[in-house]
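Appendix B. One record, verbatim.
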Amino acid sequence: MKASVGQEAIEQKGWLGAHKYLLLRRLSQIGILSLFLLGPLYSIWIIKGNLSSSLLLDVVPMTDPFMLLQAFAAGHIPELTAILGALIVLAFYFIFGGRFFCSWVCPVNIITDSAHWLRRKLKIRTSTKLSRKTRFWVLAMSLVLPVLLGTMAWELINPVSMLHRGIIFGMGLGWIVILGIFLFDLLLVEHGWCGHICPLGAFYNLVGRYSPIKVSAYQREKCDKCMDCFTVCPEPEVLKMPLFGENKGFGPMISSADCTNCARCIDVCSQDVFKITTRLPIKAEVKQ
């Protein structure tokens, strides 16, 4: 009988070793939210604003570039500080991988990961299918509607903004949206929201297409085909060629922009097949 997902990694590396990156991601997500809460709750203003637009230490502007594009499409001329803030954020996510936002920053990821965990535990199987290209159509509509309506339509229903504002000021009707996303991922489409619909994920997919920091199946010859990495990966199709495409000329680097750099594949692999690496050329080590 096959062991539960990640059990072999726990036996090999210990519980902490098999959950290291998951814990770091949660620390990052909760830590970022906590920094925003310090100001309203305790008047400690490390970051002012929200995930759409903020000021770090009263000096560094940070602007969500997707929100800025929507504002521009709606006919608003952004201030220079907003443009500078967007460039800073773009540079960060280009370096670390655009969808790094999805797994290390976005608070909705905690909701969707919880739905996927429960879906796996309850062994829920559904036949509902959605194309992963749907999110790019939603992205396009999010930029077209402001042109037609003169308002940032997506921001009115953006669950990321709703959850962030709700944690600070109270959720209200926002709970319905968050519950809807949880149930959608749990009962209808696996990884439905983040993997198929969210335009932010589609936008950061485009930002991180050529990012230098990637996950690599650098020891793919050690893979024992337990498939645990496929089970926990939010975008499992990105693993196929790096793991099994050697005979087809594919390298071990997970080059797909769909990869969120969540590193769960590293956590659950008992054979240490994966590691975080870079596209940049590095000098080869001289073996003695």
